[in-house]
Amino acid sequence: MDSKAPLDVIAASLRATRGRSGLSLTEVAKRAGVAKSTLSQLESGTGNPSVETLWALCVALEIQFADLLEPPRPKVQVIRANEGPAIYSERSDYSATLVAASPPHARRDLYRIVVAPGPGRESQPHMPGTVEHVVLSTGRALIGPLEDPVELHPGDYIAYPGDVAHLFKALEPNTTAVLVSETS
């Protein structure tokens, strides 16, 4: 086993968490009570961190200690067309499918998306805690985290972390969707 592997995981976790938090290297070091150079070395995968230093950084970044060694994977949820719990009307040809309930104290913005084929829209990470929800209306598209987007067809739903780089790429002309950006 490569003895440097845990340091690489810790380095990547610290960089990603600090990036999502929007905090500078200086601010995190100050909050943790460690030298900026120490944090810089840890984020580059060098140095020999003590448990106390790592613990202080976890407190400063508001993460669990285990998240440094096994970072949580971003939650991605996909509901395909004709999936999910549908409720039907007795009086008309109408059904409603709940795809995401609003958590308390959340902020949501709703967008209608119209996009043509091309290189796609790569979005930089938004505020920490942002989740984007998309229901594809027409066409076909690759949507989701930049590293692992999902191909959607009309009626499909996806939820993914908006606080990581993400993609919306139309694969057919006249691709439209409804996008909800939620920040808690």
UniProtKB/TrEMBL annotation:
Classification via InterPro entries: Cro/C1-type_HTH (IPR001387), Lambda_DNA-bd_dom_sf (IPR010982), RmlC-like_jellyroll (IPR014710), RmlC_Cupin_sf (IPR011051), TransReg_Diox_bact_type (IPR050807)
Residues in the signal sequence: none
Domain HTH cro/C1-type, chain residue ranges per copy: 14-68
Gene3D superfamilies: Jelly Rolls, lambda repressor-like DNA-binding domains
Keywords: DNA-binding
Superkingdom of origin organism: Bacteria
Protein name (Swiss-Prot/TrEMBL): XRE family transcriptional regulator
Record Pfam families: HTH_3
